[in-house]
Design brief:
Strand content: 5-15%
CATH architecture: Alpha-Beta Complex
Helix content: 25-40%
CATH topology: Spore Coat Polysaccharide Biosynthesis Protein SpsA, Chain A
Largest sheet: 7 strands, mixed
Number of strands: 7
Mean pLDDT: 85
Order of helices and strands: EHEHEHEHEHEHHEHH
CATH class: Alpha Beta
CATH superfamily: Spore Coat Polysaccharide Biosynthesis Protein SpsA, Chain A
Radius of gyration: 17 Å
Shape: globular
Number of domains: 1
């Protein structure tokens, strides 16, 4: 089991926002993050075809544009590698579509400071659909991770988590969700959840829960991943879930 994480200061961390065709919302998200945390913000433009990069820069963020679309995890990992290369103490990630409220971000730092967790996840149980509730129950049994939300993109990673997720093993993950959690648990890092409010998705739909067929495919993929990892979460029973039910 890894030593508890040292308290993170928001000003020493990098906010990473993966974005693909989010010109309508990314600017307000950047402004809100800067006001709430006072930290630097990096928008990773995942090969957008609209003005996502321009809107992000106009709002005061740095922008990293990917020549090819890598998906949510590929874009997030690019931001994590940027943070490691530039010496940031930690990374906070959030979506570009406005679901995550900037004023809730300090709650993740409070939870990290009180728990010493290497990863803090902002969760909102009220947003879970029936499909998600069924999927999460299955994933808790499969992985041994007693978490209420496996796909929340609102996360705070400390320096040790950043080091692991910037590495080549994390590049093999097709989904940022369970794969990232299992990889960190396998390395002995602790995970905490803290409740936060979230807004409904303003446009588009969930990439994982667009239909029951997509849910089934996601769960099959995750099952294979869990078996390949020899159920890392269950072998590391130290995982902390704070207020998780």
């Amino acid at each position: 089991m890894a030593e508890p994480s040292l308290p993170l200061l928001a000003a020493d961390c990098l906010a990473v926002i993966p974005a693909r065709d989010e010109a309508a919302t990314v600017g307000s998200v950047v402004v809100g993050v800067r006001a709430a945390l006072g930290c630097q913000v990096l928008v990773v433009d995942d090969a957008s075809t609209d003005a996502t990069r321009a809107q992000a820069c106009a709002a005061g963020a740095a922008a990293l544009t990917l020549p090819l679309g890598l998906g949510a995890w590929g874009a997030t990992q690019a931001g994590i590698r940027y943070a490691k290369r530039n010496g940031f103490a930690g990374v906070i990630t959030l979506d570009a579509d406005g679901q995550h409220l900037p004023e809730s971000l300090p709650a993740l730092f409070d939870a990290q400071r009180h728990s010493g967790a290497h990863l803090v996840i902002g969760t909102c149980v009220g947003r879970l659909s029936l499909a998600k509730r069924i999927a999460w129950r299955y994933l808790r049994l499969l992985t041994g991770l007693r978490l209420t939300d496996f796909t929340s993109g609102l996360r705070l990673y400390d320096r040790r988590a950043v080091d692991i997720l910037a590495g080549p093993e994390a590049s093999l993950l097709d989904y940022q969700d369970v794969g990232v959690l299992m990889l960190l648990a396998k390395q002995g890092l602790s995970i905490e959840e803290t409740p936060v409010p979230m807004l409904p998705r303003r446009q588009g739909h969930s990439r994982v829960f667009a239909s029951w067929w997509v849910v089934a495919r996601y769960l099959l993929h995750t099952t294979v991943l869990c078996l390949a990892q020899l159920d890392a979460g269950r072998r590391h029973g130290h995982v902390s879930t704070g207020d998780a039910a």
